Amino acid sequence: MQSSERERTKLTPPNNVVFQGSANFVGRQHELCLLQELLQQPGAVAISAVSGMGGVGKTELATQYARQHQADYPGGICWLNARESNLAAEIVQFAQLYMNLEVPQQDLRGRQLSLTEQVHWCWQHWQPTEGLALVVLDDIIDLGSCREFLPTAHRFRVLMTTRLRNLDTNIEEISLDVLSPEEALQLLTKLVGERRVQKEEETAKLLCEWLGYLPLGLELVGRYLAKKPPHWTLAKMLQRLKQQRLQDEAINRHQKQLQQTLSTAQLGVLAAFELSWDELDPTTQRVGELLSLFAPDIFAWEWVESATSRLNWDASEVETAVGQLYERHLIQWVEDKSGDFDDSYKIHPLIREFLKLKRAASEQVDELKQDLRTNNITTVIASEGKQSQPALFRSACVSPMKRAFAETFIAIAKTIPYSPTRRDIESVKDAIPHLAEVAQNLTDAVSDENLPWAFTGLSRFYEGQGLYAIAQPWLEQCVSVVQSRLGEEHPDVATSYNNLASLYKSQGRYTEAEPLYKKALELRQRLLGDEHPSVATSYNNLASLYKSQGRYTEAEPFYKKALELRQRLLGDEHPDVASSYNNLAYLYKSQGRYSEAEPLYKKASELFQRLLGEEHPDVATSYNNLAGLYESQGRYTEAEPLCKKALELQQRLLGEEHPDVATSYNNLALLYESQGRFTEAEPLLLKALEIAEHSLEENHPHTISIRKSLKSLHDNR
């Protein structure tokens, strides 16, 4: 090349940005503006980093910035691949190819220059000699390995992309998240066409959601669909993704195919995630596999620690794991607004799918290793009785990781009381999706003795809020699963009948509840004998059903048998005895036997307060019941403060939308109506009806009763 031509080339700003930038680029305007603000600051060399998980669009953002702001960098733009290349050699090569510099190999004394010294020479002799220059380091995996090669002159601006958080305190970082649902739909629309999306708009939204609004996933699927004929619907694509998960070719395109496009997406989703996976320690990878068992919801890191402690994993290595996973954006920290957990995290849905694949691969290896042991167990099983086979097979076939996960959430389920307060509900709410994962998919990992607890915990959580329709399928599934695993002749089967019957009773489905209550009683008597607390519970529950139906003569002997048995087995100082006093008193009150009801109501209330404390739903119920008795006797001045105490306590403990709160509003309203205080009664009945219709449905006996009370009030005014 002639000297004049070399000089002319030197004056042309060098630029090796290979990507054109997506024509379908959406969103990110805030990030682009922030980058410009950070990189254009005067003074020392400005260094900014764009961090985020694989596939979130870091390279695309850097490309868009470089293309849109090319005029702001008259000194040129140098794009460097920081992951795979020898960075120093790449810088020297850039100087040679794009600035036509003859990089010296020796100094003036003939000493051989190191590669680092050659790099510094390139920065010092950058062409053109004036104007800001942008250096992009794409996909940094180790700042230490490239620190000595960074330019130091004030004219340079350095933009890094990385999967790592917090590269350095001296580097301004922009954390890149997934697209918003609206932006994701906009991107998909640009890729597949507006007509296609409008035709299946709801499916398009579900497709974006399944892809977790990840730009890489959306681009790959969108480009795949764009090549398909019109009959290839979005619904078909979504169904196939759900079936084939990350293995589907739409999001797992081969690298050679992607390199033949102008897109910045040069990797499929699997390959993009694999880069981060390969950087993890072995223990961190195992922790990642454990995380794939969690539901796609917020989880507390203490639950991970609980599971890993059951696996006897080294606690310090597990602590290191959370740092590695967080640093590489494989988990995201979530602020817990309730303040119960400072260690709440979530996983992107496609990352979760990736971790599930890794766990499945590890389980296959573990199964191969245990083949000999399993064969030995099978030999033992053949010589054992039939009853022992299922447990032995499960012990051999279920991975320890799944057992540890299941045990962690079964332990949480056991902490949910029969009548949970709002505080109880709040303390376990984040664990419920993961407990549901155990009940739905991991019952094989639950021991026989703990099997009902997954379903019982879920039902208590939902029943405790009056959400009976949500609780119902869990209790119905409990009956099915427990029967299948343990056989018909087992106490836990009786308990599952009893729990489902109680739910049906709460829903006003009395004819469905009765046969279940009877089956539970007969089974308990046969398996446990007559002298057992569970038999007393069955007597009590069957009596309660009869009382709700107005079958008082059938209810009374069962209530009395329950009370006598509980007193004999549990002693007088027990909450179940207090419940029996309360229930028998309620029956007497319903029959107009007020003098017999009052002492029992008082004993129940005193006992509840002493045993459970003032802040308990059963105490509120006892206030309500005693107030109802006084109201029936015309003792209004004694009834009113009890009604108000019951309402205030239930509002505080259970929340405004609970069916028991509706009952308290109704009771206070009826008290006012009895005194002719109609203007005070009406708004309370309206509130009661609103809550009942929402939580109990319109045809529930309690809802119908409140509606009748409201009609009666209007008729009497």
Automatic annotation (TrEMBL):
First-listed, main subcellular location of the protein, grouped into a coarse class: cytoplasm
Give a yes or no for keyword Cytoplasm in this entry.
yes
- Report the SMART domains cross-referenced here: TPR
Keyword Protein transport attributed: no
Q: Which positions fall inside the NB-ARC domain? A: 36-197
Which compartments does it reside in? Cytoplasm, Cytoskeleton
Which residue ranges contain the repeat TPR? 494-527, 536-569, 578-611, 620-653, 662-695
UniProtKB keywords: Coiled coil, Cytoplasm, Cytoskeleton, Microtubule, Motor protein, Repeat, TPR repeat
Stated family: Belongs to the kinesin light chain family.
| PANTHER family in alphabetical order | KINESIN LIGHT CHAIN
This chain belongs to which protein, by name?
A: Tetratricopeptide repeat protein
Q: Which organism is it from?
A: Brasilonema octagenarum UFV-OR1
